Amino acid sequence: MKTNIISSNVWYILSISIILIGLSGCTPISQESELAHTKSISENNNTDTIDDLPTSIPTLPPPIPKSTTVDITNAPTFAPTATVLATPTSEPLIGPYEYPEQISPISGLYVEEKSKLNRRPLAIKISHYPRSVRPQSGLEAADMVWEHYAEGGTTRFTAIFYTGEASRVGSIRSARLIDTTLTEMFSGALIASGMSDGTLNRLRQKQWYPAVISNSTGFTCPPICRESQSANSVFVDTNDVWKTLDELSLNTKPKIQGLAFQKTIPNGGQNAESLQVNYSREARSVWHYNQNDKKYYRWTEISEVDIEPHFDYNTKQQITADNLVVLFANHVVDSTVPEDYASDGIHAAFATEIQLWGGGPALILRNGQAYSVNWIRMDSSDMTFLVDEENNSIPLQPGKTWFHTTGLQSETVNNNETWTITHKSPYDWGKLILPTE
Predict the structure, then answer these.
(1) DSSP one-letter string for 228-243
(2) Helix (H, G, I), strand (E, B), or coil: what is residue 10?
(3) Which residues of 342-407 form beta strands (DSSP E)?
(4) pLDDT tens sequence across 182-237
């Protein structure tokens, strides 16, 4: 059973409403600090200005590129094209609009403690660089994780806690522009150590701004607790955060829709034993499918050439996911929002806005199979709907989903059941616009 989400006329409406943005590849990182990462990028590319950065942000991403499906070997393509995935089954589809009582709309799993579904989801910002922050605490307990390009060739996580909880989550770092969108998807509260002035100004425009729990918005310990003087020593207890929201009368039940779930494996998939996502020469991760427990296990880089299993500090277990979803979305550098500054006071790494509205291509991996689909998000309060080319909802396996957001022009290769995504987005290092200029 499938649910038709939206008519194909939407794509026509989108395509005539769109501003095209030129994209280019991202650049490598070093290992010592986030600032060193961005400085290294500038030096490696022999350029230190990006005077042509856009100063305004388009309201919709460019149209989905016309491309071939990716059932090829050793040949890069742009993002995959959706196909029709009709799957006859008597098993009812869970979602994408309504969910049975005690079923989580984020995981599709049964929740024994019904009260957990009445609390506000937490979007917690977790660092991934420098590498010394690993292993992080709490990623394995999250209901869902979003990994995105941050700046300087690095990535950062937004972990969604709804029915999952942990006494120690972190290290917590500053929010990025994408969090103004992700938090809204889940009617959530945003938890971060801080944010740049540009990101803070965007958040102030949101109705849910009072639910931004951060040092920058006046919160201290608990729930935002620093264990040492290091910027990478901030942690939270999820129960402390929910208690704080209770005290503020902000711990409200969310209305979440968008994802569908079904245990029956859809037809039309291609074998997918591994997924590698390369955000830069050093920032990359690899997932391997385990046939025994039907989960994907995560590895992450420790150098340009070496990777190792990615563990959760709390559980001492390797991080896993039941579903992997790659969303191909437009990335735009905003030169009005510097995130990391160079020591010269003139140059910086600027924020990249990841435009998770409208729609685009997507790749789903579940049960050792890969599916080329589309994502659609037409309302700010919705999650991303995942659909085939006839806009039938494509179900995920009930369980934990790890999202990777990558550039719209990222390359996709399927080589002997190993899928490789090479992220491409605009160059983000440049000269600050000074008041005297």
Answers:
(1) SSSTT-EEE-HHHHHH
(2) helix
(3) 347-355, 358-366, 369-377, 385-387, 401-407
(4) 999 999 999 999 999 999 999 999 999 999 999 999 999 999 999 998 999 999 99
For 1-437, the fitting CATH number among 3.10.150.10, 3.50.90.10, 1.10.246.80, 3.90.1070.10 is 3.50.90.10
Q: What is the DSSP-derived secondary structure letter of residue 345?
A: S
The CA distance from 180 to 202, in Å, is 7
- DSSP per position, 45-96: TT----TT--SS--SSPPPPPP---S--SS--BSSPPP-------SSPPB-S
Q: Per-residue pLDDT averaged across 280-296, rounded?
A: 95
- 208, 183 contact by CB (below 8 A): yes
Residue with tokens 């996709």: 412
CB contact set of 284 (below 8 Å; sequence gap of 6+): 276, 277, 278, 300, 301, 307
How crowded is the C-beta side of 248, counted as CA atoms within 13 Å?
18
Domain ranges of the chain: 1-437
Tens digits of residue pLDDT in 361-404: 999 999 999 999 999 999 999 999 999 999 999 999 999 999 99
Residue 156 · residue 173 · CB < 8 Å: yes
- What tokens appear for 130 in the block? 């420098």
Neighbours of 74 (CB within 10 A): 8
Residue whose pair of structure tokens reads 């944010």 in the numeric block: 195
Amino acid letter, 164? G
Going edge to edge, which strands form the sheet with 225-226?
A: 169-170, 234-236, 225-226
pTM for this model (two decimals): 0.83
- Residue 220's SS3 state is coil
